[in-house]
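Researcher: For the record, we're logging two predictions in this thread. I'll number them. Prediction 1 follows.
Model: Prediction 1, sequence and structure:
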Amino acid sequence: MINLFNAQIDSLSLHRVGNKNRNEGVFLSDDMQPLNDETRGLLKEFFLKPFREKEENYFKLSHEADVTFNEIYQFVTEIFKNPVNGHDQSKKIAQYLYDQSNHPHIKSGEVFIACLSNVLVDNEKVEAVGIFKSELKQEFLQFEEKGTRLDMILEQGINLNKLDKGCLIFNLLAEEGYKVLSVDSNRYDSKYWLENFLGVNVLPDENFYTKNYLKFCQNFAKDVVLPAEDKQQEVLFMNRAVNHFAKNDAFEESNFLNEVMDNPDLIPEFKHYKVEKGPKYSIEDVSNFSIANKAVSDSRKKIKNVIQLDTNIQIKMDFINPESTERFVEKGWDEEKQMYYYLVYFNKEMKS
């Protein structure tokens, strides 16, 4: 889990990268960008806000031969080793980005390379390098007094509320390719940023395994539990699965199955399903890992806990208190109406 509240911009380099395919060129600043307290605060919010608002899907810099051949890895490693020469490395980063900007859809823009300190990752204070690109310009009005008239001047600039592209490379797991976060609000050229420029792969950490295992369980519930039993048991299975993750720090598959699988006959089905579908989630050989609490919370929000009936009635289950669903909701069959029913027990209606 990252905490960017106390992060500081120690230095900043600013360059402009055009579209190489259109011969727009690249502009490399000779010196670092001067900063004052006001610009530091504004830019910190501009750079880091998108990373506070998104899920932590970590990547790592990679290369088919060895990570040391990844160009961004080389430049960033030099910055971490010798921050004084950070501006020289920032020029190489901007030039390398320009070399990848050869698709006609790629937009020109300003590139910021920032050295950051006091970044907390899993309660560990680390340094980071941020690479940010602004592409889309917005029109805005300036006003100027001219004699007895107030004139409007139409100008273009960057919207500081929206970062187009950015990444944070943390000085962690250097031998594996560092720990990397990325944002990209313009999906039309995502390969250009993640693959061509950064050259990243997913980092298989506890966050990755926690989210993917729960996604796998969700599909098992839909594909196996629902056809074998019913919608209520599908919801209850996921209810138990999420709560197992929430109350444990480490995952062990046999313990998970014994606690969560209400119907023992489905355990062999689960293992077969994992062999068949596990590679899709990169968990086919995974049975033990540390649990990431934030990933559990994020996954819980996405899992549906509603039984939708064809009579335009919904029954919402409680993921926090699953025993209520098991104790106070019963499913049956009415012979006279030839319809299924749910019987719900309660003491009083609660105010919404």
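Researcher: Logged. Prediction 2.
Model: Prediction 2, sequence and structure:
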Amino acid sequence: MELKRTALHSLHKDLGARLVPFAGWEMPVQYAGLLSEHKCVREQVGLFDVSHMGEFRISGRGSPAALSQLVTGNVAQLQVGHALYTLMCNEVGGIIDDVIVYRQSLDAYFICVNAANVEKDAAWVRERLDANGTHFENVSDFYAQIAVQGPLSSELLSRVSEVDLKGLGYYRFTEAKILGAPALVSRTGYTGELGYELYLDADQAQKVWLGLSEVGQDLGLQPCGLGARDTLRVEVGFSLYGQDMDDSTHPYESGLGWAVDLHKEGGFLGQEALAKVKDEMANPKASVQMRLTGFSADKGPVPRSGAELFSEETAQQAIGVVTSGVPSPTLGRRVGFCRVPKEFAKAGTKLWVDVRGRRVAVTTQPRVFYKDGTAKKDLI
């Protein structure tokens, strides 16, 4: 199948990016190198092309109640100008996708979904959305998305916007012109650092990317690829759909129980199943219960997604699986997430991972490895 290309594809080639297939798209995995790009975002500011992500609009007088029934969070109570990380689950509690919902007005929402799930999500929502008083649009083809991430991201955007973005709170958004291009500017990101995500017309993407690159030269700005995006998000404990969760796993075994509101008015699809799961997981005598936990290793090859875990070096039966694993440039260790039975998820548990026939010793620990990020820093 032919890979899709974002509106910024030609610029990535001009910059010498290494391009790889990802979620049906040809995307830049790195430019100057993963270590340089990772360090740049932790200390300065980096640009990411995330235009492969999908965007939906749901509007109409019935949209608050209708959308609320499709996600685990309370979007009906979300204030205008606020964003919410939430989940779409199926009837048995499996995770269809993790999404960010933006409330643009009392009866209009903008939703960002994962690239690999756009068509699946659109069909799923259309099938279940009450047509009475609601209108659904898949507007993914019309948007580009640029992520501006790092401690100096606010300084960069203050130079190119007429709106004072330094007063924009975490998980808040506004409409603004960036270098003259209308954009939805959201103070969100996937790196753990102060950052913004810009949703703008695809035909404006190159102008904005080039303008930001020029204005940010003295701030040390660099273009950054999917490689650094992965190491950055794992260090701060952010999950990736398709690896750390999918429709065969539920929120409570994926470390996402906090995103489920079992008591919101009107309920939601999968609520009954998830309530039962939560009760079962609270029972210490229940059968095998899986947990997503973190792990780290001081040396050896990096345990990657799919690698099996063992409780003892001589054990032949795997007890769990690695879902994400990266070399941590910030910490100088190998870190990642794994799904294992509850009794093995306790911090400090010694396990072994089979990495291409080689056993690597790992130790479980909480999934947040790096806690010094600036994402939630108050800028006022």
